[in-house]
Task: structure prediction
Amino acid sequence: MPKKISSLSDLFRITTPAAALAFSVAAPASYAEEDMSKPVIKVEKKKDANGREGVYMYIDGMKVHETDTTKQPLPPVVTPGDKLGAPPSDAVVLFDGTDKSFKANWADTKGGDSKWNVVDGAMESVRGAGYLQSKEKFGSCQLHIEWASPAKVQGNGQGRGNSGVFLMGTYEVQVLDSFDNKTYADGQAGALYGRSKPLVNASRKPGDWQCYDIIFHRPLFDKEGKVTRRATFTILHNGVLIQDHTVLSGGTGWRGPHAASDYKAHADKLPISMQDHGNPVRFRNVWVRELKDK
Ligand code: MG
Result:
């Protein structure tokens, strides 16, 4: 038991270097209060080369889906280590590789049987089958999910191995074959789609299994539906930190080539879902640990 400190004079009697050091370490810094004045959104309406009017939005000065890498540099490439994570004892296992687990835990967005396939112990997206969603609903959580883009490379940019992991069926962590496949930074693998690019590109080759470990805190809304606390994401991609307690500045939904959506109030718990973007992306070893809202 450490000696109880009951007064300042007790403190000054501590003379050993170790004890002195212990008292010189400040209490852990808490995250700074969120800056609710951000993001600053600028909206422009412009006609493109074909005369079609488009909405161009700028979040804190950066165009949504900016393709000019001198303005929005692509994250550096990092080669990940080669081991993936098994579920801990308190996890809710949402997919263990079996048909039984698939049928017990997953549905289409209307709650009916999903037309996704189970192939070689993985759930595979089927073009036109729609999103796959968990039957159980979750709010703040830790999510482990493994995925593989097709080994046979087809398409490029957003058309190559596109899917997505949607927390609360709403906030997309992009799934994309981003191995030697350039696209806009805020739409590559591990991006919070249209909102936050990953810190680095830790992608494996097409066909190789990859994983996301996601720590997600849900947004909170007041009675009028206004967001009072934004969602946060910490994400490891193949064990490499790619989102570091990122505050999600708004929605991740598609509104146009350079437009972003805003937060919209929703229930406290919603399904986790994966996107059918027309590419046969596979998912396996899916497990969740629910987190208390702070
Ligand atoms: Mg996607």
